[in-house]
């Protein structure tokens, strides 16, 4: 049965890719985005243009941090489910402009939760991040791990979202699922992320900055896998865990209808291997500027995706060389 879905951050990288399969299967999608200038607004407009031809899509320019506008939207539209992807993204930018993260990721999320509560929403799916694992060194990262030691304000806001969602699930019975995304890449990606920065520099014959002397492991996850995971989770509302034991709390589920899942490729690779895949796809060798570790960054990410697989029967599986080739095809076409 077709649903009416609110999708925040619809002009974003993940937002556009999640909207497409929902529209393709007949759902009605109301997308909101504030189209801020954190990066090229033209790219956001071009993503929106991929959606506007669909009769079941409607775009409403709006900032999730605007409480009155959000309250009006929820009260007039009557949504079935909500996918909340709008956020101030990026670890490094959180060192420069912390207030943007408080405004969007905390105030904005509170407005979404209030809308879901008063709008009797069947299921809220929201973006968390692999960055919540902070300085953890036990790999792969599991939803069972303690994540109380964030190493960036961005990570702290995402962990806060999980806690805020839990309180609403507990108090109001709101089914809520958080998804910890791991290093998402692919066509229409964000220009502030490594794949776009690297592709642009390699093509221009300029050096790329390679942090921690290249000794970084990342669980690079292809965008189509992320989108499929989000849609599958949306269709499977969070439920209370019947086996939950308050004496030995499970960090990924609850007595409330609340769940948290990793969504990553479950096969981390060395950053240098990713760069080699870019070089192969572009037919050019990168000039490399090796640098020390950046503040707020972590040396390795690696997702344990067994919980997601058990919940929705899916785990990301696109090989990096295939995903990078598709990304470069898009990049050369778009730019």
Q: TL;DR of this structure?
A:
The protein is of the alpha/beta class and 335 residues long. The chain has helices at 13-24, 41-49, 67-77, 93-96, 98-118, 153-172, 194-204, 223-234, 271-282, 306-312, 320-334, and strands at 4-8, 28-33, 57-61, 81-84, 123-129, 176-181, 184-185, 207-210, 217-218, 221-222, 258-263, 269-270, 287-290.
Folded structure, characterized:
It is a single chain. The protein is of the alpha/beta class and 335 residues long. 40% of the residues lie in helices and 16% in strands. It contains eleven helices and 13 strands. It has helices at 13-24, 41-49, 67-77, 93-96, 98-118, 153-172, 194-204, 223-234, 271-282, 306-312, 320-334, and strands at 4-8, 28-33, 57-61, 81-84, 123-129, 176-181, 184-185, 207-210, 217-218, 221-222, 258-263, 269-270, 287-290. The strands form four sheets. Strands 3-2-1-4-5-6-11 form a seven-stranded parallel sheet, with helices on both faces. The chain has a two-stranded parallel ribbon with strand order 7-10. α7 (194-204) packs across α9 (271-282). The longest helix is centred in the first third of the chain and has 21 residues, at 98-118. The chain starts with a strand and ends with a helix. 47% of the residues are buried. The model has no long low-confidence stretch (mean pLDDT 96).
